[in-house]
Design brief:
Elements (H helix, E strand, L loop, with lengths): L9 E2 L10 H11 L3 E6 L2 E7 H7 L29 H11 L3 E5 L5 E6 H7 L2 H12 L9
Antiparallel strand pairs: 1-5, 2-3, 4-5
Helix pairs in contact: 3-5
């Protein structure tokens, strides 16, 4: 049996509620040097808000993040893993969905941690890390405009 997600995940990550303002979320991101924050309702995972969500769904649309609740911009469709899942499963999900962080939830959808690309990298062999970073960071197919 391989390493379990619980062995490498970050426990008790900073979280926000849907009513937290976008500005407050950005302040949490800056203070903790993170790019994604779980959104909880009644202790259950509702989604994630990322720095990209803030830029694309608020700032680029000319909205004022100061008083805007994060409920208007956070991502509700989130891929998750369980604490007893094999780390290789988390790695596969990260590559498949091209995400660098996965919320770790229990059977009742309660957040118990976050597993990140960095967490996996610390646990994996050097060769595996190179492959993982390549798989996760691979740009989506199709034309890209700047």
């Amino acid at each position: 049996m391989g390493t379990k997600v619980r062995e490498v995940m970050t426990e008790r990550p900073r979280c926000v509620t849907p009513d937290t303002t976008v500005r407050q979320v950005a302040e949490v991101m800056e203070a903790d040097d993170i790019g994604a924050v779980p959104v909880l309702e009644d202790e259950r995972l509702s989604g994630m808000v990322t720095d990209r969500d803030i830029v694309i769904r608020a700032i680029a649309k000319g909205k004022d993040p100061t008083g805007m609740p994060v409920r208007e911009i956070f991502s509700r469709e989130v891929v998750t893993v369980g604490p007893d899942d094999d780390l290789s499963n988390a790695l596969s999900l990260m590559a498949e969905h091209q995400v660098r962080r996965l919320p770790v939830v229990d059977a009742d959808n309660r957040l118990v941690g976050i597993v990140s690309q960095a967490d996996v990298a610390l646990e994996a062999k050097e060769k595996d890390v190179g492959q993982m970073v390549g798989d996760i960071s691979q740009p989506p197919a199709g034309p890209r405009q700047v």
